Amino acid sequence: MDQIAYVNGSFVPLTEAKVSVLDRGFLFADGIYEVAAVLEGKLIDNASHLARLERSVGEIGLALPETVERIQEIQRELIARNHLVNGMVYLQATRGADSGRDFAFPKDVKPTLVMFTSVKDIVGAESAKTGIAVITVPDLRWVRRDIKSVALLAQVLAKQAAAEAGAGEAWMIEDGKVTEGGSSSAFILTKDDVLVTRQNSTAILPGCTRKAVVALAEERQLRVEERPFTVEEALAAKEAFVTSATVFVQAVVTIDGKPVANGKPGPMTDRLREIYIDFAKATAQ
Amino acid sequence: MDQIAYVNGSFVPLTEAKVSVLDRGFLFADGIYEVAAVLEGKLIDNASHLARLERSVGEIGLALPETVERIQEIQRELIARNHLVNGMVYLQATRGADSGRDFAFPKDVKPTLVMFTSVKDIVGAESAKTGIAVITVPDLRWVRRDIKSVALLAQVLAKQAAAEAGAGEAWMIEDGKVTEGGSSSAFILTKDDVLVTRQNSTAILPGCTRKAVVALAEERQLRVEERPFTVEEALAAKEAFVTSATVFVQAVVTIDGKPVANGKPGPMTDRLREIYIDFAKATAQ
Questions:
Q1: Residue A247, SS3?
Q2: Domain count across chain B
Q3: Among A30, A116, A183, whose Cβ lies nearest the Cβ of B103?
Q4: Residues A133 and A268 in one domain
Q5: Most buried one in A187, B42, B138, B141, CB count within 10 A?
């Protein structure tokens, strides 16, 4: 059965869901996106995603074409129409399609809103049991990585390099430190049992799952340090993992082919994954 | 009359020209573009644009869906179908639309090719007589600016800032030096009659019009230095100008509100503009 997508007010089969070639998302990457997980038909940590959406569009002076309340209604309608149990809802807002192509913002053009779903068993993912390999690549991205824009070519190239190396993620390196993964936040657990993840700044995306995991860890009296770390620190750590809306908490077992600790998912990672899944289910809406 | 666009093998009205919401140009800015000028129905410096297109797609591992010879045929057919006399042909190739959204390159997906035209009297543009104001903004772009990708959000924000300031271009500044304009190359003519423009590297796009202007200047025994320059140097210069396929050679008369020399287009800029237009007409195809 064909998936149903949402495009500017209409629910249409995904295979027929289209935008103008003049859409500024297509011509200029002039748009913002979010991905929210779905468990048992309910949205996970969605208020956090919608708050970040509002922040991102504000940073580029883009007015959403719908209220976030209405966006959440559409997310739910898409879940229902697609009978989605476990997976994700993707949403993208762009500055719309003008009658031609000009860099400066167009006037009197309605922004574009596109949404669609995909199926994924995030909780039961095999990679959660095995952990993933990570490679490192230079961080080629622009200066405002705190804005969740669709200008993702650097991340595409990073994650393609990972795929070609048989790895599940690429950690991006700048000034000798890990910034984050191509589509995830990076964490380590040091030998002193301190969880380390880079502090939010313009250098990284403020991860929603990252934020929730830090809060859940601190509630449990775990020591968390928000600071950059090196690959050497990660390789000397007890554990390493990544977080994102589409993997939750995911062990990293090798970096550039070298094992992290014994090369298996660590107990703290597994525990944080369970804690996050419990939180997700308890707060799903 | 509606403009005719080209989308993946078909000529369609521009208002009906669409791509899938899953197109990687829309989702990831995973695409490359070029803009070639048209004078009197003929393409200007097009071999240079197509060579740069081939280089850009190669740098991101994207196979063009058509040969450059066929692309040039389509450019010409679009000019004919739209009865275009003076203006531009835009073309964009993306990595196509897969059945879902995944960062790594999709397999067995045909790249997208979109092309359309627009009308502009480049030779007779009023701004060529008056010159333009330029503002400066920090260069927020990614590391590989030599690739002409559609990940243009930083340029959009730069040129919007210029538009809001009533300026015609934004010069992007990095480490105290001008990299280039939001959609043009930057030149100055020093007090010693040396033309200065930044050397090609990953820090700037290798401008086709920049290249032609440098070659035309050198043929005429003008002294050209390819090196970065500061805004202070530009303000102390005899003349400043920008080059691009859609403005050719365009005088810069103020920078951040301060006049360059007497605040009027200079004679060398006017002369290089004439020389470029002569070259363009003589080599148009």
A1: coil
A2: 2
A3: A183
A4: yes
A5: A187
Shared-domain flag, residues A163 and A208: yes
Q: Are residues A52 and A76 in the same domain?
A: yes
Q: What is the CATH number of the domain that holds A268?
A: 3.20.10.10
- Identify the domain boundary among A99, A119, A139: A119
CA–CA separation, A39 and B13 (whole Å): 43
ipTM at complex level: 0.98
Q: How far apart are CA B79 and CA B133, in angstroms?
A: 32
pTM over 0.90: yes
CATH of the domain at A81: 3.30.470.10
Q: Hey, what are A285's tokens?
A: 């809406």
Residue of chain B minimizing CA distance to A144: B140
Residue A195 has φ and ψ, to the nearest 5°, of -80, 125
- Please list, in sequence order, all residues whose beta carbon lies within 8 angstroms of the beta carbon of residue A71, skipping any fewer than 6 positions away: A50, A53, A64, A91, A113, A115
Measured between beta carbons, the chain B residues lying within 8 angstroms of A7 are: 21
> Is there a single domain that holds both residue B157 and residue B272?
yes
Distance in angstroms (rounded) separating the CA atoms of residues B254 and B130: 11
- Using the beta-carbon criterion (under 8 Å), do A153 and B29 form an inter-chain contact? yes
- 10-residue averages of pLDDT along chain A (285 residues): 92 97 98 98 98 98 97 98 98 97 97 98 95 98 98 98 98 98 98 98 98 98 98 98 98 98 97 98 96
Task: State the pLDDT at residue A2.
Answer: 83
Instruction: For residue A26, list chain B residues with Cβ-Cβ distance below 8 A.
Output: 19, 23, 25-26, 92, 94, 114, 150
Residue of B nearest to A160 (CA): B104
Domain hosting B81: range is: 4-119
Put simply, the answer to whether A14 touches B21 (Cβ < 8 Å) is: yes
